[in-house]
Amino acid sequence: RVHLVNKIASDHSGGGACIKPDEENASSTYVMPEFDERLSCEAAGGKFLDITTVDEILKSSPFGNIVDVMKIDVEGYEPLVLEGSVGLLARSPPRTVVAEIIGWRKYCFE
Prior knowledge:
Layout: E1 8-9, E2 16-21, E3 29-31, H1 38-43, E4 47-52, H2 54-59, E5 69-72, H3 78-83, H4 86-91, E6 96-99
Parallel strand pairs: 1-4, 5-6
Antiparallel strand pairs: 2-3, 2-4
């Protein structure tokens, strides 16, 4: 079973971010920080999504708060998603976590 949520997973809940498909890579999107509110984002062709944590998402999951497999592919922001998953990881870690770690992004958080 899969529970799809149209939000951005991060280390905090609140606010939002503008994302837009990457025209050079059809399977990717990028965050447009210059558009920090819904109307300007959508006028620029983006989609404004709420920011939340995995722990918050699990509170409203129709399947409960147990995760067997967790796949994270967020173009270098994996550490933020994991920080927003501390409740899950402490309570009942998934059997499998699949993540693609992009090292260059780490410098953005130092």
